[in-house]
Every structure is written in structure tokens, then in C-alpha cells.
Design goal:
With 674 residues, this protein is of the alpha+beta class. It has four domains: 227 residues, Aminohydrolase, N-terminal nucleophile (Ntn) domain (Glutamine Phosphoribosylpyrophosphate, subunit 1, domain 1, 4-Layer Sandwich), CATH 3.60.20; 212 residues, Rossmann fold; 103 residues, no CATH class; 82 residues, no CATH class. 42% of the residues lie in helices and 15% in strands. The protein has 27 helices and 19 strands. The strands form four sheets. The chain has a six-stranded antiparallel sheet. A six-stranded antiparallel sheet has the order 4-5-6-7-11-12. The protein has a five-stranded parallel sheet with strand order 15-14-13-16-17, sandwiched between helices. A hairpin with a 2-residue loop joins strand 2 and strand 3. The chain is globular.
């Protein structure tokens, strides 16, 4: 993968200042340390940092069509590149490189904007059509590759800037780093950042399956339109396919193996993450099988060993690697490693990160890079399509109680009271249900976690938020969703929020590309998704057994104890931040000092102190303690984000100065961190 950035003057009245695009590209050098490339027009500048994986010698961007009228900078991989290239050559197109990026200008020549429907893989791209004076920005179907944008309008001009990371926007010198409380509200609602809102005022992330069309016109009033080329969809309830059991598993196996095979395509070696759960184990099993068919050795595996007996999956991963004959690489990770990695994690993620496992994955990607690799397979996506999270089971159980009208609602209220959660106004609960189209498995866990806001947000924060409902920002397709099976509606919300907002962001692209590592996702293959989406929900959850079809297929590939292993949430200990102050890095107490909390204004100083003291008296492992721990991690990470990007006076840590004068120093700091 790579990093892209650019700027376009929407009035067409002034040239782009030389050096802006280069500063933006330099700020994301970690995304592409191999090459840089630039494209300049009087009112447009595009830039690229390349991590060379396919077409190592001749893939420098931008890449154009035959006459240079269409130019592309691009981040990602198109996994059907060989087949697409052969088809385009047969139709008369002339290729000058061996890089998959070159598919894009030729497909655009033939299909215009509809070429986005034909792209298969993971991507964020910027395409300039010289003849039409049109810029297109687009992001892949599931949100694997990030793409941020902002429109900066003022007396000195009207410009649209875009980039793979926000720090590139800041490095332009044209975008001020100012907080958006709605983004922080997202983090404390979803423990994810699903977009389009970010924590930076005026900066949006382009949603998965969306694209922008920017038409520059002679009048100087550019037209900016956001469009959708793809959305998650399921069959109408009752129209799902059931199928013969053996045939369905056989077909899934064939489709999944083809997805893994496509993601092994690279001109550099490919490795895989391995947790010991069924998802990553099946990925590794198919990859090893395909490698051996080519006469090659088994794929190397990389595993995080969390230094906590209840969280460590090293033994399960060892069972799989020995079964498959794969060479395991183990990365030990304890509380001190989590704590010390957090400043770099927040710098990479560009927002609060509440899931401490993201820091562990940052360290895992660092080890992949240290051993000389650039590409890693991973198992994300299986839980989203196949109901892999435990709250699906809880929701199903509570659904049985709803046979008696109001009983399920009563039980939920009782549990919230028993867990010590503050009471929500039920008018707010009603608004949330309306925003997502009704009852949903994710609302149970989000409702429990959202209690942290009631405990910790300051009065000023609530005033700044007003009546903001984060669910309303998600732009859900409720007209379609209301026609689906309830389980598919829950899968939809998870795939819209958790997948792009956490698993593919601060647990995926951002921590991997921080160490110049590309992650690839067989479960997010278009054909895998389409096959699983059409199946009846009993193939996803049968009784209280999650991921049923995957486990049936996995029996053929890995030991049964792995195939039917109960879902274990990969996480690192939250209490690493809550040790005795003398055992913590100085920045934790500095960020949580009354002075620093008052300076940011997001959190109530007295309540933060109270809950830091109170949670230790709660039973370890209880829901109330876990939620309070997560809420306090949210406070620390929000404070750390503010220090890093907004006001570097909160702690004795380096921050990022967004002014143009300091951009070169920031770039040097970023380069030294990889």
C-alpha cells in the first residue's frame, strides 16, 4: 500500500504554492518509504509515497493513460490485476508498467465513474481527468484504506485537500488542528471512529464505498458531489439461501481459498498474523496449502503473546503453527510495552484509542517490518459477517424474553442498574433505536459502554455536544435494513461501525502502515462477502454457536479444538494505565492532572478522580469494573490525542505542530518513529 495526498483550488483563481504537496507527502513517509511522486497543474497538486509490493521497478506514481490525459495516485492493491490487465490489453490498451495502479486510468477510459464498480481489492485513489477538469476521490467497499478530506474556505481562497492521514493535511500549513467534540463523542459511544466525523473540526473521512466528484468549471465555482458506488446489502427476510449442507460448505471453501490465493499475489514475501482463533487459523491453513502447491515453504506466522494468563493465546497459536509446519514468530507484550507504545499509537491513529490491543498490534507490525516483510494476511471480517461477537448471543437470549412484551426491556434496565451504569434518559434510547432501525445486538454493548460519558464528560462538554446523537452520523440505509432479518441488521451495524472504525483503522491500517506494513483481509474479499451475505442466518449463528459455516469448513483444515474454539476477544489489559502512580510513565499522571483536564475541558475533574479511586474496589472481571477501566483509558487517550495534535503543553511528550513553519521538524519526528 501507499500514502496519497493532494490539494485543488476550487475557484481556479490561484496557483498551488510549490512545496505544499511535498510537505504533505513527507508527513506520511512511513506509508511509502520506497518512492515518492508528484503531479502538478496550475490549480492542482497530487502526491504519493509508495510502498512497492507489485511492479517493484516501474510502479512509481502518478501513473497515466497512454496520452497522459488521466493521472492517478493510489493507495492499495487490486488483487485481480493479472486478469484485468490481460482483458484491457486484448481491448487495445497499452500498459507501460507491471503495477496494478495502471488498471485504473485504463478502466476509467472505458467506463468513467462506473469503473469503481469493477475494482476488486482495497484502495483509496485520486484520479485527475484533464479533459473534463474533474478530480475523483474514492475509497474501497469496506473501508480498508483511509482517505480524509477537508474544504478550507476563507478570504484567501477555497481549497479542497485530501490525504491518507490527517497529519498530511496538517503539514500543508492550510489546515488548523482544532478539536471536534462530536468525534470524541463517537469514541465514547462506539469505542471506534466510524466516520465521517473525526476528532478534527472540518476534517471528514470518506465513507467506505463512497466517492467525491470535484468538477472545476470556468465560472470558478467548483461543484463538489459525494456519491455512493457500493453499499452493504442482504436479501429480504425470507429470501435467504439455505442450501444443501455439504454443497454450501464446499462452495464456501472454494471461494475462500480463491480469496486467500489472490492475497498471496505480490512481488515480495507474504506473512500472516495468527492468534490461534478460527479466523486467522483458517487463513494461515489455506495460505500454507497454496504455498506448498507451488513447491514453497509454509507461510511465516506472527503472534502477540499478551503477558496475562487470561489473555494469552500463544499456546493456541502454537497448536496451529505446528499442525501446519509454519515458522512462528512470537512478540511478547506486557503492561509496560502497552503503556510505552501508547504515545506512538495515538500519533498513528490520530484519535483516541480505547482498545489497548491496538498498541499490541502496533508492536506486532513493528516486528514484521523489523524482519524485512511488507505484507501480512489477517483474519478480520469473519466476526462481522458471521456473528462472531458474544453480544450477538446475549441479544438472542434477551430476544426470547421479548415473547412476553416488555420483559426484555425490563431485564436490560435491571442489568444496567446492577452493573452500576448511570441511568440514560429513555427518550435518548428511543432516538438511538430510531437511528439504527430498531433493536440491535450492538446497542446492548454500546449502551453499557456509553455510560462512561455520563460518568466522565464535563458539563461544558455536554453543552458543546448539544443534542448530538452519534448514530445519526452513520448514514445508515434504513430503507433496506428494515427488510432484512434482525441478525443481518445487527451485522450491518457492526460492519458499518466496528469494521472501518476500529478493526481496519487503529487496529489495522494505521498501526500496520506506521511500520510500512500492508495488511490484507481474505474475509473482506468481494466474493466471500457476497456468498456469506446471501446465506440464511442459521449458517452464521446456529443456536448459540457463532460462525457456524466457517467452523464446519475449518474442521477440514485445522485441529478440531481450534475449529470449534469459543470466541476469545483479542485484547490487552486495560488496567495497565491504572497501576500505582509510581509505576506509571510520567505522562499518565500529567495528562490526568486537574490542570490538564481543566485545560482540555472534555472531562469532569472531580469525577475522573472519583472513578480512578473507586474502580479498584470493584471485583476484578466484573462488567462495571471493565467499563470504568475502558472509560478511564478513553480519558487518557483523549488527553494524549489533544496533547499530540492540539496543545503540546499537557505532558512531557513531543507533539505535532500543525503550522507550516514547523512541518519539517514534524516530518523528522515521524520518520524517526518508524
Amino acid at each position: 500500500m501507499c500514502g496519497i495526498a493532494g490539494i485543488v483550488d476550487l475557484r481556479g483563481s490561484r496557483s498551488i504554492e510549490p512545496g505544499i504537496a511535498r510537505r504533505m507527502a513527507a508527513a506520511i513517509v512511513h506509508r511509502g518509504p520506497d518512492e515518492d511522486g508528484y503531479f502538478d497543474r496550475p490549480n492542482l497538486a497530487l502526491s504519493s509515497r509508495r510502498l512497492s509490493i507489485v511492479g517493484l521497478q516501474d510502479g512509481r506514481q502518478p501513473i497515466t493513460n497512454e496520452d497522459g490525459s488521466i493521472a492517478v495516485v493510489y493507495n492499495g492493491e487490486l488483487f485481480d490485476y493479472p486478469e484485468r490487465r490481460a482483458d484491457l490489453v486484448a481491448r487495445g490498451h497499452v500498459f507501460r508498467t507491471h503495477c496494478d495502479t495502471e488498471l485504473i486510468p485504463h478502466l476509467y477510459e472505458d467506463h468513467g465513474e462506473e469503473m469503481l464498480d469493477k475494482l476488486r481489492g482495497q484502495f483509496a485513489l485520486a484520479l485527475w481527468d484533464e479533459r473534463r477538469q474533474r478530480l475523483i476521490l474514492a475509497r474501497d467497499r469496506f473501508g480498508i484504506c483511509p482517505l480524509y478530506w477537508t474544504r478550507q474556505t476563507g478570504a484567501d481562497g477555497d481549497r479542497l485537500l485530501f490525504a491518507s492521514e490527517i497529519k498530511a493535511l496538517l503539514a500543508s500549513g492550510l489546515v488548523r488542528a482544532e478539536p471536534d467534540p462530536r468525534g470524541i463523542n463517537h469514541a465514547f459511544t462506539f469505542f471506534a471512529m466510524p466516520g465521517p466525523v473525526t476528532c478534527f473540526a472540518g476534517v471528514q473521512i470518506l465513507l467506505p464505498g463512497h466517492y467525491l466528484v470535484i468538477d472545476l468549471v470556468d465560472s470558478g465555482a467548483a461543484v463538489v458531489r459525494e456519491k455512493i458506488f457500493w453499499q452493504i446489502d442482504f436479501p429480504d427476510r425470507g429470501q435467504e439461501e439455505r442450501g444443501d449442507p455439504r454443497r454450501v460448505v464446499d462452495e464456501f471453501e472454494q471461494i475462500f481459498q480463491a480469496a486467500v490465493d489472490r492475497r498471496l499475489r505480490a512481488d515480495v514475501p507474504v506473512v500472516s498474523y495468527l492468534s490461534g482463533g478460527v479466523d486467522s487459523s483458517v487463513v494461515v491453513a489455506h495460505a500454507c496449502h497454496l504455498r506448498r502447491q507451488e513447491g514453497k515453504s509454509a507461510i511465516p506466522t506472527f503472534t502477540i503473546s499478551i503477558q496475562d494468563p487470561e489473555l494469552n493465546e500463544r499456546s493456541e497459536a502454537g497448536i496451529v503453527s505446528r499442525h501446519l509446519g509454519a515458522r512462528p514468530v512470537i512478540v511478547d507484550c506486557g503492561p509496560s510495552e502497552i503503556l510505552n507504545a501508547y504515545p506512538q499509537l495515538i500519533r498513528a491513529a490520530e484519535g483516541p484509542v480505547i482498545d489497548t490491543a491496538c498498541a499490541a498490534l502496533l508492536l506486532l507490525a513493528r516486528e514484521v517490518h523489523a524482519q524485512g516483510y511488507k505484507v501480512a494476511l489477517t483474519g478480520e471480517g469473519a466476526d462481522e459477517w458471521l456473528a462472531g461477537y458474544p453480544w450477538y448471543k446475549v441479544h438472542k437470549l434477551l430476544g426470547f424474553l421479548d415473547i412476553i412484551p416488555g420483559l426484555g426491556k425490563l431485564v436490560r434496565r435491571a442489568y444496567l442498574r446492577f452493573s452500576g451504569a448511570p441511568r440514560f434518559p429513555w427518550s435518548m434510547v428511543k432516538r438511538v433505536h430510531e437511528a439504527v432501525g430498531g433493536a440491535n445486538a450492538w446497542l446492548d454493548i454500546y449502551g453499557l459502554f456509553s455510560a462512561s460519558k455520563l460518568r466522565l464528560f464535563s458539563a461544558d462538554m455536554w453543552e458543546r455536544l448539544g443534542d448530538h446523537i452519534p448514530y445519526a452520523d452513520l448514514q445508515l440505509n434504513l430503507e433496506r435494513a428494515r427488510r432484512w432479518h434482525p441478525l443481518n441488521r445487527s451485522l450491518y451495524l457492526g460492519a458499518r461501525v466496528m469494521l472501518p472504525g476500529l478493526l481496519l483503522a487503529s487496529k489495522g491500517d494505521r498501526v500496520a502502515m506506521n511500520s510500512s506494513v500492508e495488511t490484507r483481509y481474505p474475509f473482506l474479499d468481494e466474493e466471500v462477502y457476497a456468498f456469506l451475505a446471501k446465506l440464511h442466518p442459521r449458517w452464521k449463528m446456529r443456536g448459540f454457536r457463532d460462525k457456524y459455516i466457517l467452523r464446519k469448513m475449518a474442521e477440514r483444515w485445522v485441529p478440531r479444538e481450534i475449529a470449534w474454539r469459543r470466541k476469545a476477544m483479542f485484547r490487552a489489559p486495560f488496567d495497565a494505565f491504572h497501576a500505582d502512580p509510581k509505576d506509571l510513565p510520567p505522562f499518565v499522571e500529567q495528562l490526568l492532572s486537574p490542570e490538564s483536564l481543566a485545560r482540555t475541558g472534555y472531562f469532569d475533574v472531580d469525577n475522573v478522580r472519583h472513578w480512578r479511586d473507586a474502580y479498584r474496589r470493584l471485583r476484578a472481571g466484573s462488567a462495571q469494573r471493565t467499563m470504568i477501566e475502558m472509560g478511564l483509558v478513553g480519558v487518557i487517550s483523549t488527553q494524549l490525542w489533544h496533547h499530540t495534535y492540539i496543545d503540546s503543553s499537557l505532558a512531557d511528550l513531543p507533539g505535532i505542530d500543525s503550522s507550516a513553519r514547523q512541518s519539517e521538524e514534524c516530518v523528522a519526528n515521524l520518520q524517526s518513529s518508524i
